[in-house]
Amino acid sequence: MDVTDDSATTQRGTARDRALDAARTLFSQNGVSGTSLQMIADHLGVTKAAIYHQFHTKEEIVVTLLEKPLAELETIITEAEAMDAREDQLDVLLKGLVDVVLANPEVVGLIQGDPAAARIAQVGRLHGDTGRRLTNLLSGPHPDPEARVASVLYGAGLMSIGHHPLLSDIDPETMRSELPRIGRLMLR
Amino acid sequence: MDVTDDSATTQRGTARDRALDAARTLFSQNGVSGTSLQMIADHLGVTKAAIYHQFHTKEEIVVTLLEKPLAELETIITEAEAMDAREDQLDVLLKGLVDVVLANPEVVGLIQGDPAAARIAQVGRLHGDTGRRLTNLLSGPHPDPEARVASVLYGAGLMSIGHHPLLSDIDPETMRSELPRIGRLMLR
DNA sequence: GTCTATAGATAGATAGAC
DNA sequence: GTCTATCTATCTATAGAC
């Protein structure tokens, strides 16, 4: 069964991308620690060794999944930091954050809820002070307790909301308008 | 070293309670799947068998940890449902939810973020429609998409916030006044 | 009530055939 | 590039001595 063309379903780099897709799905369902390489292999109908041919360790899979959303997040933060007015800063930040969350719902949920993923996200040499910069932007120029509570509440909620079952029927346009609106309400 | 009185540190039922304390701490740090019975035993300086003497399975530990906060949650929900005016309903609900979260920060965080804990919380015959009732109360009499997004965002954020490292220096009084206030702002 | 010992399954990971 | 086979470590859980 030769596959000589790059079909639209599973493009180039097939095996690797399919492994990442399966891992992302299973990680978000069972957590990183709750997902074995055997489960990923079974999901694809291959053996564990086939997965290990693409990634040398389980952690390498997690790192690969985290790379894109973390890079997008850092871009957003940098853009927001470049704004002068606080209102513009918040607008750019909230719109960007919501876009990242809606584009990477499962992975973002992992960073928020899964201790194994959170550890890898922090350790992986990547984005050492990203968390601090994000916190500063959210809490604003007057990081009193009230502002900090609101910003952490919003940040944590946002990261958990992307693939929440109770909102699976809400269309993305509503999410994309409501989430920044609520953010401005909370953080103003 | 006899303990005949119920001291404030490790009351009656010593071994069992110490096991629960260790499990709660480790579960919240590493997740349920990321915590082995060996880790719990090591944390207490005992063997795995000592843990298995108190609990027959790992899941039984999780169920035991979830019982109290889930029971408290159901009480709050019932109290709120008994209110006539929407404003009173929301006041009772928000104050109660915040109290539960602040009293059980680690466990509540597990229910929100850990798929293994969430599954046990739902399956464990306990509180079959608690989630639906809570959602109805939060979303209010007009559960349009906007109200639902706000209620899920608040609920998810609240459950993740109890033992968040960025808020560890905020005094409980501030949390207890700010969190319901933000909730009313979002859900009104 | 806590231990040793161990079963049985599965984890992550490697080597080498095809 | 995917397979079989296998290693070692660790997992949950049990049985039985002390």
Provide a brief overview of the structure:
2 copies of one chain form a homodimer. Chain A is mostly helical and 188 residues long. Chain A has helices spanning 14-30, 37-44, 48-54, 58-81, 86-103, 105-113, 115-123, 130-139, 145-161, 172-187.
Task: Label this structure with key terms.
0% strand, Arc Repressor Mutant, subunit A, DNA-binding, mainly alpha, homodimer, 10 helices, Tetracycline Repressor, domain 2, 2 domains, 72% helix, 188 residues
Give the secondary structure arrangement, pairings included:
Two copies of one chain form a homodimer.
Chain A: H1 14-30, H2 37-44, H3 48-54, H4 58-81, H5 86-103, H6 105-113, H7 115-123, H8 130-139, H9 145-161, H10 172-187
Helix pairs in contact in A: 1-2, 1-6, 2-3, 4-5, 4-8, 5-10, 6-7, 6-9, 9-10
The structure holds a DNA duplex (18 and 18 nucleotides).
Give structural notes.
- The structure is a homodimer of 188-residue chains.
- With 188 residues, chain A is mostly helical.
- Chain A folds into two domains: 2-56, Orthogonal Bundle (Arc Repressor Mutant, subunit A), CATH 1.10.10; 59-187, Tetracycline Repressor, domain 2 (Orthogonal Bundle).
- Helices cover 72% and strands 0% of the residues of chain A.
- The first copy, chain A, contains ten helices and no strands.
- The longest helix of chain A has 24 residues, at 58-81.
- Chain A is elongated, with a radius of gyration of 18 Å.
- The model of chain A is unreliable at 1-12 (pLDDT under 50).
- The interface between A and B is large, with 38 and 38 residues.
- Chain A binds a DNA duplex (18 and 18 nucleotides) through helix 3.
